[in-house]
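Re: export button greyed out
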Amino acid sequence: MSLQSTDSAAPGSVQDLLSRAAVVAVDLVKIYGEGEAAVRALDGVSLVVPKGTFTAIMGPSGSGKSTLLQCVAALDDLTSGKVFVGGVEISGLDEKERTRLRRDKVGFIFQAFNLVPTLNALENITLPMDLAKKSPDKKWMEYLISTVGLGDRLHHLPGELSGGQQQRVAAARALASRPEIVFADEPTGNLDSRRGHELLDFLRRTVDEFGQTIVMVTHDPFAASIADRVVFLADGRVVEEMLDPKVDQILDLIKNLES
Amino acid sequence: MWKLTLKNLKARKLRLAMTALAVVLGVGFVAGTFVLTDTMNASFDSLFSDVNEGLDVIVRSESEFESQLGGSRQPVSESLIETIRDVDGVEAAAGNIQGYAQFVTDDGEAVTTGGAPTLGGAWYDEPQGSLVIREGEAPVGPGEVLVDAATADKHGFELGDTVTVITQIGPREFEVSGIAGFGEADNLGGATLATFDLPTSQELFNKPGQVDSIDIAAEDGVTAEELRRRIQRVLPDGVEAADAQEVAAEISNAIKEALGFFNTALLAFAGISLFVGAFLIFNTFSITVAQRTREFALLRALGASGGQVTGAVFLEALVIGLVASAAGILAGFGIALVLQVMLEAFGIELPSQDLVFLPRTGIVAAVLGISVTLVSAIAPARRAAKISPMAAMREMAPKVSGFSTRRTIAGLLVTLAGTGILFGGLYGDIGEPAQLVGAGAFVTFLGVAILAPLFSGQLANLIGYPLQVLRMPGKLARRNAARNPKRTAATAAALMIGLALVGLVSILGSSIKSSTSRILDESLEADFTVATGGFAPSFISPQVAADIASLPEVELTAPVRLGQFRRDGNNTFVVGIDPVSLEAVTDIDVTDGSLASLGDGEVLVHGDVAEELGIEVGDSLGMEFASAGERDLEITGLFDNKSLVQADYLLAIPTYETYFPEKVDLQVFVKVEEGVALADAREAIDGVLEGYPALELQDQTETKESQAEQVNQLLGMVSAMLGLALVIALFGITNTLALSVFERTRELGLLRAVGMSRRQTRRMIRWEAVIISIIGAVLGLAIGLFFGWALVKSLESEGISELTIPYGQLVAYVGAAAVAGVLAAMPPARRASRLNVLEAISTE
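Workaround output, generated via the alternate export path:
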């Protein structure tokens, strides 16, 4: 198994499709527990995330949306199914290869506790590259730092930053190594609405201006409306997709799904 | 609260086990020392009551006190035996003689014991004592010897073999006539025993017509006390009749006292281990209280009082203390066995005896273990009580800072008090100096431990500075070591104690070595020294000095003898020398009077002692000798350099022989005739020494080396004993890091999620441990340097005039501490790298 990109594949081939999508997930099944107590968290989910798009995943709690994210991001093992990230199949990678994948090709934004408390904001942003012993792209860093808008607080420890600032640093960290894809798990969950909007704007701009690919799990219809597409999950299955979503459309759909 | 405590204990088994282990080791060491001591005492008691079994009364000359060097009693006339046999009620009476006698093995090596004496004695058939011939027959005539079973067994001596025995009159060959044991035991507390018939003994031990004691058995129906009184009536002045069992007890007590030093040393090491263990317990409780802030806050919010929270923590400590002490007492038996094996390695073999467990052992060990645990838990328990119910709502624990004015003041005061007590012990005249020094060191350690959090963060940053070359893992290791100064300081403090002591010992050792080396350079004008090798108490026959002196290659020999007398109730060393020859081989720096004119009944005194006692040349000095009682000697001179003679009082050999019955040399200095090549002289002297395998001929370099070797051996032993304290300190590092890993689960999960590899994770934890270890080592060695300096300065009058700091060795200790840190970090590092990333991130 190689992590090399496969850009040179013939047009129309499977390789070609895989290389044009940031993520391709085929028939993902994830079962927790055994026998009677077994729970099918994912029950045959397939998903293609094209490069340069912003995808939101929604669904009631227990619908499997976080599990999907974790499996696609190589944080958790699948029971069956295949996942390709940047054209490379990740199911079956060993621990070392997964670590490298997370470090080089994937960015993460969690709901909380995104920053290492002993590292200042700037150090947190460059953390994945430091771990990979790579030097950051200077222009990109300058752009990120100016967009994060920390100003003189760049050398402060996370404990000295507000929740909004912390999440923006986390977003910058996720984007710093220009990963194939950024996974965000309820990134605005702990923020008030104003700070939440700021963060979402920031994420949207990286997609529009730099062609970044983002997959975000959220239960907030407003947050989801920022995305290019919303994928609705229920009981471990994809039940609905919506392109260019608006808040009220999303709310309607949720109502329909619930009834 | 009780239920909650038990549940908490159950929930954290591993941490508990680690905490308890520190107590178990410390308590085990204490209990082990007691068990061993009691076992030894019991075995010596039974052994010596056996020795005089069958005897009722022993007649010997009176003695003012027991010298630790032996030879405190003058012999009595052989004719007394007949006198005593005539006393009504005497069943049998026989003369006994004791002296130095050392076997030589078939390959020409002297048999050494490593501690116990090498004894010679006289055989008698009647009365029947405890020495029983197992094989062969009693020795008869000048050519036969009876060998103790242990020696015979160990060196393959068999009936009819010819063996060489060295006594004070030189080596001689004997035929083994028999092999004997003491009842069940093969020897007497590790001592070797060569037994001859009485006339041979008198010749070998240079006591013509005399015996050291007369052993007497009573007729049936006559009590020992009655017979003792009857015999006393026929004895001349200065000779006493003593109860045989009382004499046995006396000997037993003397041996116990001699080994008492060993027990005290072991207990001191046990105390150090417990002290180090206390830091570990304190630290574990502090960390867990901090980690359980939310739990305690919730309890408070639910209505628990501060006192109840404190009580819960105390209860945990009590349970740990109880369980660990019980385990420690059990472990004590094992440790006692290990110590016994170590003793045997030094040649101190104990007669077979079941381990003795006195109630005192259990009580002292349990009280120590429980109280150390409870005292260590006081501060964390009080902190737990101060947690406000509001803390339950807070997201994160408040930031920990090491700095506080109160801490600074308290730390400085305690440190100053500690050093004050230390210097009081070193220079003052109050109380027991050794105990004061120990207490001073203890308090100083506490003081520094209180101060350490003030600067441990900065120290961690400084020490971790070079780690930045390791990029992110190194950087994080450095920050982690610095992020909680209190925790880092307490963890490092445990290691600090061990390393301070190891550092002190090595500074003291190299200072002693360099001082003696310089002294030998400056004041030893002898070309060779004849010495007994190693620790074994062997002696040199005066014949050796005489034979060497008669060689044409040799100008003269200067023998030195050692004895003890008593002044103001203290046993004090005195040295017997030949004034003329001593002057030729060394400069003792006579400041008043002269050495050469030192005559009979006169004494030379060290200048410092004379000043202390307020005496001067011409005064008379009262000296109490064991064999002769109080005598007044005239002071005819003062000297300042005692580095070679090693005593404050010098007597001429004739005077020495008046008061000390033993006629053996401790050391002989040899000066070669001018113009004779040293190699030639050596060959000639070696010829004389051929028959004395226990003796070593050393030139000046070798003398220095052998002195250094002895110091090294002692240092090695002390350092090995300190090893346990170091091991406990390393457990402390493992424990702290394990708790930190647990506490940082989410952070570790995050790091792993954003691409930290397992290897990088392990490296991060490992280097944190290395930083903590080095902090401990650096602090410890700094204190060790200070202690070493203070101790060496205070020993200046003892001839340790040079402070030598073994920098290379100290740096090596820091390196060793770093390596130990790597080892200590292995379990927590492994755990951290194996965390399930997903679970770690979602941990609350």
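Chain A touches chain B at residues 70, 75-76, 95-96, 99-100, 102-104, 108, 110, 113-119, 123, 127-128, 130-133, 159, 173 (CB under 8 Å). The button fix ships in the next patch.
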